[in-house]
Amino acid sequence: MSNRTLAVVSAGLGQPSSTRLLADRLAAATGRSLLGQGIQAAVDVVELRGHAHDLTNNLVSGVPTGNLRAAIDSVVDADALIAVTPIFTASYSGLFKMFFDVLEPESLAGKPVLIAATGGTPRHSLALEHALRPLFAYLRSVVVPTAVYAASEDWGTGGGDGRALTERIDRAAGELAALLGGRDRQKPSDPYEDPTPFADLLGA
Amino acid sequence: MQFGVFTVGDVTTDPTTGRTPSEAERIKAMVTIALKAEEVGLDVFATGEHHNPPFVPSSPTTMLGYIAARTERLVLSTSTTLITTNDPVKIAEDFAMLQHLADGRVDLMMGRGNTGPVYPWFGQDIRQGIPLAVENYHLLHRLWREDVVDWEGKFRTPLQSFTSTPRPLDGVPPFVWHGSIRSPEIAEQAAYYGDGFFANHIFWPKEHYVRLINLYRRRYEHYGHGSADQAIVGLGGQVFMRRRSQDAVREFRPYFDNAPVYGHGPSLEEFTEQTPLTVGSPQEVIDRTLGFRDHFGDYQRQLFLMDHAGLPLKTVLEQLDLLGEEVVPVLRKEFDSLRPAHVPEAPTHAALRAAAAAADTEKAGEA
Questions:
Q1: Which of A156, B14, B142, B359 could form a disulfide with B310 if both were Cys (CB 3.0 to 4.6 A apart)?
Q2: Which keywords belong to this entry (chain A) (predicted)?
């Protein structure tokens, strides 16, 4: 049995939050799917609500106050990421964007990512495709094909026609698990431990 | 160990009075601060270089030349000299000239500058920041060490049979520090040349600077300049003092809350916890500063940022009195007693001249 780490970022604001609920469902489904491949996943959830002030501080002054640094590290160091936001005003929430704005530009490159969102109406579901997917494309993450959107009404639907929320969750989680299981643990190179030799800088 | 002040040279409205100094007042205030630094027994005055308002110091060697004429002992330096947008030929000339006028009391700190528009204003591109810093400094290094230089690079016109004048005083180039907030490439550059490395230190948590300085020390040893603990390290710091800690906090808070760099963000308490900013009594400043050694090892130069965020000149001069009379003498004694014998002091012109003479004698002996 091998091990992988799974970071979950939830930008939900309510307590309890449907965004967090969806994030937990996706994490659990991914964990189950990984177990099927003989992989044990350790899940680390970052609730952005708890870092809202620290994110503002970081943007304004560059100083990641509180335990924001630990939250950033857990996401950057994870083998895969599940990113879930409520849809506000036709896009991801400002809080969600702030978190990805303070990451180093290269820090999510190559990382398998599952994107998901919640909203009051199903009419915003394409925000996943026109807002979240381009964000992670810019960060050069590898986003799985199925993005999961849960509108209020989805929490009350069942049926086996492939459209039910549970089925979409399982499909997306399966895609993430397949992507994650098929690759070795990737450790990004650390420029502070392993710097570019000066001769290369001079010759560049 | 050297102690001193470094200034950004910002013109900022005093948030407690609404008063904004004129450029003339600010420039004269910077000079007064430098003279005061010498008077209270500090070792170094360093000025920033900026080419956009609200900053006044666009011409550091002009200012430092004037200060040189009015001081006896003070080492004049920069924080930083823009190695990206200045012509390295002009840096070589300006600082060699300053070195002669100041009888060698000159060193300088290289920095890249992080204001995007300044690069195109000087015909450069911020995305080339690291390559510019690498190539320009390599040329500067040669201009001070080779009497006649043939050179061709990517960023300026080639040179054929060029001699930078005046030649460095006594044939000894000014000592160079490389300043960085975050770039491992600059730590690598400083290590390669055996130059000093100055960690700005004041904006980010110490864990970050520990990594940067450890990298510089390790690579300094790798390039054969000495052991890692002999590398030349400088640190920034930021303090505000009153005899009673609570008076310092009360007086400094409005300046902190409205400061251009970090105002309207973290609280004074959060910022104090996460960065070296110390607001309190002289004893608290002593304790905190001594603690830097625990994180970064024995180091050679400590510069404090004292005059920013609209603090009036009178207050800054009071701060310098406290720094020079109560803080630095204790720090000097403590740091000196803790530093092992094999760890060098920050290089001065006299020390570099003596080292060069010793190397020449050794060479002559071998011949």
A1: B14
A2: Flavoprotein, FMN, Oxidoreductase
> Residues in chain B with pLDDT < 70?
367
pLDDT score, position A157: 75
Instruction: List all residues 6 or more positions away from A92 whose beta carbon is below 8 Å from its beta carbon.
Output: A11, A85, A117, A127, A131, A132, A135
Residue contact B262–A64, C-beta within 8 A: no
Number of C-beta neighbours around residue B81 at 10 A: 25
Which one of B134, B200, B210 makes the best mutation probe of the A interface by having the most chain A beta carbons within 10 Å?
A: B134
Neighbour count for residue B246 (Cβ, 10 Å): 10
Whether A162 shows a pLDDT value over 60: the answer reads no
Q: Which of A61, A69, A72, A193 should we substitute to test contact with B (largest number of B Cβ atoms within 10 Å)? A: A61
Alpha carbon distance B235, B202 (integer Å): 9
Q: What is the pTM of this model?
A: 0.92
Q: Which two tokens stand for residue B236?
A: 């920034």
User: Do B205 and A60 lie within an 8 Å CB cutoff?
Assistant: no
Domains in chain A with CATH codes? 2-203 (3.40.50.360)
- Classify domain B2-366 at the CATH superfamily level: Luciferase-like domain (3.20.20.30)
Separation of alpha carbons B35 and B316, rounded Å: 12
B204 in contact with A, Cβ within 8 Å: yes
Helices (H) and strands (E) in chain A, counts: 8, 7
ipTM summary value: 0.83
Domain range list for chain B: 2-366
In angstroms, the CA B36 to CA B141 distance is 33
The answer to whether B256 and B263 have CB atoms below 8 angstroms apart is yes
